[in-house]
Amino acid sequence: MKYDYIIAGSGCAGLSLLYRMLKDPQLSQKRMLVIDKEQKNKNDRTWCFWEKGNGLFESIVTHQWKTLAFLSDDFQRKFDMPAYRYKMIQGIDFYNYVLDFAKQFENVTFASETITQITSENDLAEVVTENTTYIAKYVFNSTSLFYPKMDIGNSLLQHFEGWVIKTNEPVFDATVGRLMDFRLDQTHGATFMYVLPTSETEALVEYTLFTEKVLEKEAYKTALKDYITNHLKVDDYKILHTEFGIIPMSLAKFSRSVPNQKNIINLGTAGGFTKASSGYTFQFVQKHTENVIQLLKEGKHPNPKLTFRDKMYQWYDRTLLEVILSDKLEGKEIFATMFKKRAIEDILAFLGNESSFWQDVKLMSCLPIMPFLTSGVKQLTK
Asked: Tens digits of per-residue pLDDT, 225-270?
């Protein structure tokens, strides 16, 4: 069976691209196939991100904050943001929003199948599943088929368990989100809590670590219970929702393309759009898929080339990750120094790949020189 475009994987990246295609009059009538072994009918994750103004998915934003808090043992501060807003989108809301919109288009087909192979030859791409073979001009892949090798020598895992809790009494300030609270045991590595209240009685509390391996399941629950009791001072609450996730933070090189297979374009984590130094993905996916759409409309190959600034940000990420992996500095120390010495919007611009060169310089100048210099030089030679 032949299509114009095949989207392999229906997570954030695949569905973001599909939605943008269907919103564009020039592309919306193309024959499209979306393949995923799982149907997206569960609230399996929460995306948080920051942006200026209203985004493409503004109507499904669960909550947003214009004030963020950072906490460590010797430094605590609330930051008001003039331009950015920190936003939350529930996975199920995103899936339903895109899938309901896609139902209006008879030219869009969904297949619940396991993909075993993706190849490209003679200006066409081929997706092989357990059931059949599909062909298209382009395959946009967000599966793990082309992931590079990751191990404890080149990668950390960002792993987390989050609970949405509801209290009987009003205890939260829904206008302030705790972006990072490092007042926790750092034995395993960089360890912190998110607290994102959506009302006076409801909040997402998430225990997050940047370490080489995940913990025993009970360790996450113990940490969350302790934090809710001792830091939030909440004893009486209900757990409305739980989620667990693992995000790679790796020096391994994720590529936007597959060598010698030009009609396969990698999206999302597969394409390197999970930021190596922070694990954030949602907004990088949005920027990339927007660029893909523009190239398709112009009749060009839909794989945006890395700009000089893209390469700079990759180097920054790899340098910071190398500093943590080599134990030159603790993650807690790095983030505490940045938030103590620099404006939050400079930090968010830097972490969001939106900073000016001057903002880069200001941020890097507040950090210890030698650990970053030696790690930066090492990454330049790789």
From this structure: 999 999 999 999 999 999 999 999 998 889 999 999 999 999 999 9
Q: What is the dihedral of CA 131, 138, 44, 84, to 10 degrees?
A: 180
Q: What CA–CA distance (Å, rounded) separates 67 from 81?
A: 6
**DSSP of 126-150:** EEEESS-EEEEEEEEE-SSTTPPP-
Check if the beta carbon of residue 267 is closer than 8 Å to that of residue 254.
Answer: no
Q: Which residues of the chain have pLDDT under 70?
A: none
User: What's the helix, strand, coil split of the chain in %, to 5?
Assistant: 30, 35, 35
* SS3 of residue 335 by DSSP: helix
Q: What is the CATH number of the domain that holds 229?
A: 3.30.9.10
| Cα 258 from chain centre | 21
pLDDT of residue 253: 87
Confidence (pTM):
0.95
Examine the domain organization and report whether 7 and 53 are in the same domain: yes
Q: Residue 121: which CATH number?
A: 3.50.50.60
pLDDT at 151: 82
For residues 210, 327, 364 and 247, what is the CA-based torsion angle, rounded to 10 degrees?
A: -20
Q: In the block, which residue shows the tokens 């009003």?
A: 170
Q: For the segment 323-353, what is each residue's pLDDT rounded down to a tens digit?
A: 999 999 999 999 999 999 999 999 999 999 9
The answer to whether 179 and 70 have CB atoms below 8 angstroms apart is yes
199 within domain boundaries: yes
Q: At what angle do helices 369-380 and 308-325 cross, to 10 degrees?
A: 120
161 with 139, same domain: the answer is no
Nearest one of 37, 29, 22 to 4, comparing CA atoms: 29
Task: Tell me the C-alpha to C-alpha distance, in Å, between residue 18 and each of 28, 38, 41, 42, 274.
Answer: 9, 17, 17, 19, 19
